[in-house]
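User: Could you go from structure to sequence for me? I need the amino acid at each position, not a summary. Structure tokens:
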């Protein structure tokens, strides 16, 4: 099939490269001419494992191409995905849909044959209806359909999530659109991917409800971790004991410094706003948003407390700046709130992250960036593990111990067994295992 993707960001690029890899003929469109030029030479603007190779392979096979010319790209398109950003609107927390509606208008003016217009971006309930109104005003000659096809991609695992999804959700208002979407995803049927057809509004809400539930699950175990510290229980064992109940499941029950990223913070807030607007307040999600924001700041207080209630003039080593491993994305990362609070308390920060330092430097140009974990530990009063990168899981503790001013490790991701760290002569603070300090 001939497929067009508007938006060459994280979602658009992964979607386009995977659909091309299925054998579809894909063109990805973006306004940013420099980004398009780089992509045409298979230079990827984001770090996503496997994406650079997938793009290069499919550009080489002439299954995938990039352009700034939307009109030309739509000439023979049978499907066009809208995969532009829907960032949080700073003033009120609603999703900013200006890019989505702008793309819909341009598509409406460019369509010359029947086409299914699909929202892949995460959009509030009712957006597809508004897109239909916008395109109808442009009166494309051969008609069109609008469908909703939310993505469920995790950064760092996006290609696998696309090719082996737990489900494909399609909200469509007519049989013709359903037939076209079946054809788009037919190659996935070999992976036994269940395809679920709903109406558009239901599909749009499934995305928000799924993300908000995952964020709620994380926040639940984070609060249970606080209780574990108060009563001397072990949160990892509590999570395992809960998760062996297949109605609960073991995933997303890892206690930590709070969730970050480009989705959970934005989507939970957008759902809260939608609930308020629709007279159906989402009180649990309201609490999740508040608790998560407070938790990130509380983690800095935990470090300060572990340093004898003052970090003024002390060097603190920070390991991990991205919101999770295997990405370069620092959006809403816990490290941002933690570093801000520690700087406010007078600490001197040395930070290291395998892929997140370039982005972090734009926010914090004045802190020191190390070339590895050991440089962060050298002369530090505390070494704080904020993101659970593989490379932090087996540090040479014997080597680190004599280089630190104070032998203190604050492990916000519980990647070390407390006994092992203690055996190396460290004081060890983690999350939900033993007392806070
Ligand atoms: C999420 C959803 O998982 C995905 O389905 C959706 O399409 C986009 O949003 P992503 O934001 O990439 O994906 O990352 P995810 O792996 O879900 O982690 C989100 C945040 O939760 C990270 O900050 C992570 O550290 C945190 N997290 C995750 C926990 O603190 N504990 C957990 O058990 C799991």
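Assistant: Here is the amino acid at each position, in order:
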């Amino acid at each position: 099939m001939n497929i067009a993707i508007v938006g060459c960001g994280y979602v658009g690029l992964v979607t386009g490269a995977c659909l091309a890899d299925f054998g579809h003929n894909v063109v990805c469109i973006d306004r940013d001419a420099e980004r398009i030029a780089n992509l045409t030479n298979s230079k990827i603007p984001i770090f996503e494992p496997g994406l650079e190779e997938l793009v290069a392979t499919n550009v080489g096979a002439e299954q995938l191409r990039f352009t700034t010319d939307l009109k030309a790209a739509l000439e023979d398109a049978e499907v066009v995905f809208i995969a532009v950003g829907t960032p949080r609107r700073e003033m009120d927390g609603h999703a900013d849909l200006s890019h989505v509606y702008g793309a819909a208008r341009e598509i409406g003016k460019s369509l010359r044959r029947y086409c299914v217009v699909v929202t892949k971006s995460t959009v509030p309930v009712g957006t597809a209806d508004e897109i239909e109104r916008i395109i109808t005003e442009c009166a494309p000659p051969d008609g069109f359909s609008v469908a909703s096809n939310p993505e469920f991609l995790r950064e760092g695992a996006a290609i696998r999530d696309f090719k082996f999804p737990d489900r494909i959700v399609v909200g469509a208002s007519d049989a013709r659109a359903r037939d076209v979407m079946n054809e788009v995803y037919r190659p996935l049927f070999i992976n036994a991917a269940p395809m679920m057809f709903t109406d558009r509004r239901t599909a749009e809400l499934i995305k928000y409800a799924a993300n908000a539930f995952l964020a709620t699950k994380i926040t639940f175990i984070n609060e249970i971790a606080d209780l574990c510290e108060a009563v001397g229980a072990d949160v990892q064992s509590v999570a395992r004991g809960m998760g062996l109940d297949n109605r609960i499941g073991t995933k997303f029950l890892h206690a930590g410094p709070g969730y970050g990223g480009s989705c959970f913070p934005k989507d939970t807030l957008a759902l809260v706003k939608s609930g308020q607007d629709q007279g159906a307040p989402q009180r649990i999600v309201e609490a999740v948003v508040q608790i998560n924001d407070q938790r990130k700041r509380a983690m800095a207080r935990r470090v300060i407390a572990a340093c004898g209630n003052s970090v003024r003039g002390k060097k603190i080593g920070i390991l991990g700046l991205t919101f999770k491993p295997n990405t370069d994305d620092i959006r809403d990362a816990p490290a941002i709130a933690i570093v801000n609070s520690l700087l406010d308390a007078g600490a001197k920060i040395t930070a290291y992250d395998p892929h997140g330092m370039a982005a972090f430097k734009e926010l914090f140009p004045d802190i020191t960036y190390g070339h590895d974990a050991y440089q962060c530990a050298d002369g530090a009063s505390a070494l704080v593990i904020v993101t659970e990168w593989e490379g932090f899981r087996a540090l040479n503790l014997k080597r680190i111990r004599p280089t630190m001013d104070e032998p203190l490790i604050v492990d916000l991701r519980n990647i070390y067994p407390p006994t092992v760290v203690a055996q190396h002569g460290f004081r060890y603070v983690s999350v939900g295992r033993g007392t806070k300090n």
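One structural detail worth keeping in mind: The pocket of uridine-5'-diphosphate-xylopyranose is lined by residues 151-155, 211, 214, 218, 252-254, 256, 259-261, 263-264, 323-324 (CB under 6 Å).
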